[in-house]
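Extended Data, record Probable membrane transporter protein
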Amino acid sequence: MNTMTLWHVSGWGFAALALAALLVGFSKTAVSGANTVSLAVFAAVLPARASTGVLLPVLIAGDVLAVLTYRRHAHWPTLWRLFPAVAAGVVAGTLFLVWADDGIVRTSIGAILLLMAGVTLWRRRTSGTPEDPDEVGTRAGRVKARSYGVLGGFTTMVANAGGPVMSMYLLSAGFRKLGFLGTSAFFFLIVNVSKVPFSAGLGLIDGRSLLLDAALVVFVVPGALFGKWAVNRINQRLFEQLVIAATVVGGLQLLLR
């Protein structure tokens, strides 16, 4: 069976999806947030609602590679604080997808990414001294973790767009490069795997979508390997700038489409 024909994807369209899959691998092991560009590409080539189901297994493949690469650098107190709030956000996002049609989903994806880009820049300009990741146990740290967790769960369920939310949270919490990547790797692996039953129940993941995923997932590996090579050559300041820039580009790209 011809996967491209099944999805009515042109050769150029498949090439764009393959490049986006490669970028997913790179973002998972180097510049978290860069896969917002991948999100925009998938939503541009495929129907917006269906694109979230096709992209999810590709993201999980990248998450597995990121966990294998940075598993020793995860900050588990932060993860345990986030998960309950994220679960609530995922449920809210699932309920939203029950009634949202393709047009609403497309508009929502663009709005979510633009909002995240704007808040990221605002936070960067107004924040003072970076916090310490261990401050997650304070009252203020718990409130912030819950707020970001709910928003991250909702955005990742609706549009696989939780990356900008979590990137902003981890940067504001004072995570250094490897701690950032290790914590986000486990976070997104657990969250994305937990989304599979919801997405399947909504009809977003089926045999048709998995067939396309099988053709795309091979492109994630070279992207992840390149990211692992590149991250050791990126200093902390440049790393943070690239994370924010990737968020902005991804949001604008989809908004202007």
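Summary. The first helix runs from residue 3 to 7.
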